[in-house]
Design goal:
The protein has six helices and five strands; from the N terminus they run H-E-H-H-E-E-H-H-H-E-E. 39% of the residues lie in helices and 28% in strands. The structure holds adenosine-5'-diphosphate (ADP) and magnesium ion. Adenosine-5'-diphosphate is lined by residues 56, 60-61, 63-65, 85, 87-90, 96, 101-104, 113-119, 139.
Length: 148
């Protein structure tokens, strides 16, 4: 019985590539993640929170980084989203986390992004959130959402 449970515990995992600067596909990864979770019958609030943190991470990679990967891992009681990019990094994380702070240029703002609410909303909707960044190298985010 223990062996069977351990086998069933292998997490579901998928990785999605995100291309920096390509706004025509911006949102496609978070939409895919959302539909996977819906198909798996997770509660609506869990789907919404996970979709939101995925979407904001994806838009940030498209807006600021060269390229990145968003990894979805579903454990038995939590959903984990990791967003790892190669890009300029974030020099002042505390500042970047503040509501309304944005370095988005006019091109990004004209498309409706750059309100400066992404990172603080990610933190707010995650049950666990961690951000590490190295200037000139890239940024890594880890978000965990409880499923019940
Ligand atoms: N992946 C990233 N790489 C580099 N800089 C980032 C990244 N994500 C966020 N930032 C920086 O943090 C700021 C705040 O991000 P966010 O809260 O999502 O707001 P917005 O994207 O609307 O500016 C951005 O304007 C940008 O300067
Ligand atoms: Mg953002």
């Amino acid at each position: 019985m223990m062996t069977l449970e351990a086998t069933e515990d292998i997490p579901y995992q998928r990785s999605f590539y995100v291309e920096g600067g390509n706004f025509s596909y911006a949102g496609i990864v978070s939409t895919s993640i959302k539909s996977i979770l819906k198909q798996m019958d997770f509660p609506n609030d869990v789907v919404r929170k996970t979709a939101l943190v995925s979407y904001e991470s994806e838009i940030n990679i498209v807006s600021y980084a060269r390229k990145g990967v968003i990894k979805l891992t579903i454990f038995s009681d939590v959903i984990q989203i990791e967003a790892v990019d190669e890009g300029p990094g974030i020099p002042n994380i505390e500042l970047a986390m503040q509501e309304g702070y944005s370095t988005a240029d006019n091109k990004i703002r004209e498309m409706g992004f750059g309100a400066g609410m992404g990172l603080c909303n990610i933190k707010h909707y995650s049950d666990y959130f961690d951000l590490t960044s190295e200037v000139g190298k890239g940024t890594s985010l880890k978000m965990v959402i409880r499923t019940h």
